From TrEMBL:
It is a peripheral membrane protein. It comes from Paramormyrops kingsleyae. This is Nucleoside diphosphate kinase. One of its GO terms (molecular function) is ATP binding. ATP binds at residues 20, 68, 96, 102, 113, 123. It catalyses: a ribonucleoside 5'-diphosphate + ATP = a ribonucleoside 5'-triphosphate + ADP; a 2'-deoxyribonucleoside 5'-diphosphate + ATP = a 2'-deoxyribonucleoside 5'-triphosphate + ADP. Keywords: ATP-binding, Cell projection, Kinase, Magnesium, Metal-binding, Nucleotide metabolism, Nucleotide-binding, Transferase. The keyword Ubl conjugation does not apply. Its cofactor is Mg(2+). Its main location: other. Residues 12-149 form the Nucleoside diphosphate kinase-like domain. GO terms for biological process: CTP biosynthetic process; GTP biosynthetic process; UTP biosynthetic process.
Length: 161
C-alpha cells in the first residue's frame, strides 16, 4: 500500500507532525493531538523521544547552511519531542494550514502557531511541507512496524465484532 495522491485520490496520504520541546514543556501535546483528531485525521503512529543530534541533522539537512541551524538543533534536542504520523485526505497540505506560517508573527489566529507561539525560534510544532518530504520524514522517524493501519469502526470489515 502506498501513501501518495494516486489510487484513493489522496485518501490515505500521510504526514509527519511533531510537537517540539517547547510544546511538550508547555503541556500542549493533548491540545495539538486534539486538533488533528477533531479535524478528522487518523493517528497511525506516535512516540516520544529525545532525538539524537544525528537524527535532527538528517531531519533538517536542507537547512544546514542557515545561520540559525546550530541553534535550531540545540532547540530541537533540548527536550523530548512527540512525533506522530497522521493519515487522511490531503493531510500534508491541510496540516500545514492548521500549523500556520513558520514565523508565528505571520501565523493566523486559529492556527496552532498563531494560537500558541510568538517567536520563530520557538514555534511549538513541525509539519512536513510536501508529499515527498512527508515520505522521507516518516521513514526517518518511524520503523514501518511502528505504524499501525486501522479501520474506522463503522467500516464493513470491522462492523461485525
Ligand atoms: P517549517 O517548520 O515551517 O517547515 P522551515 O523553513 O522548514 O519551517 O524551518 C524549520 C524550522 O527552523 C522552523 O520551524 C523554525 O523552528 C526554525 N527556523 C526557521 N527559520 C528560522 C529563523 O529565521 N530563525 C530561527 N529559527 C528558524
Ligand atoms: Mg520545513
Amino acid at each position: 500500500r502506498s501513501y501518495g495522491t494516486e489510487g484513493a485520490g489522496g485518501l490515505s496520504e500521510r504526514t509527519l507532525i511533531a510537537v517540539k520541546p517547547d510544546g511538550v514543556q508547555r503541556r500542549l501535546v493533548g491540545q495539538i493531538i486534539q486538533r488533528f483528531e477533531k479535524r478528522g485525521f487518523k493517528l497511525v503512529g506516535l512516540k516520544m523521544l529525545k532525538a539524537p543530534e544525528e537524527l535532527l541533522s538528517q531531519h533538517y539537512h536542507d537547512l544546514s547552511k542557515k545561520p540559525f541551524y546550530p541553534s535550531l538543533l540545540r532547540y530541537m534536542g533540548s527536550g523530548p519531542l512527540v512525533v506522530m504520523v497522521w493519515e487522511g485526505y490531503n493531510v500534508v497540505s491541510t496540516s500545514r494550514k492548521m500549523v500556520g506560517d513558520t514565523n508565528p508573527a505571520e501565523a493566523p489566529p486559529g492556527s496552532i502557531r498563531g494560537d500558541f507561539s510568538i517567536h520563530i525560534s520557538r514555534n511549538v510544532v513541525h509539519a512536513s511541507d510536501s508529499l515527498d518530504g512527508a515520505q522521507r520524514e516518516i521513514q526517518l522517524w518511524f520503523n514501518c512496524k511502528e505504524l499501525t493501519d486501522w479501520d474506522c469502526h463503522d467500516q464493513s470489515s470491522t462492523f461485525h465484532l
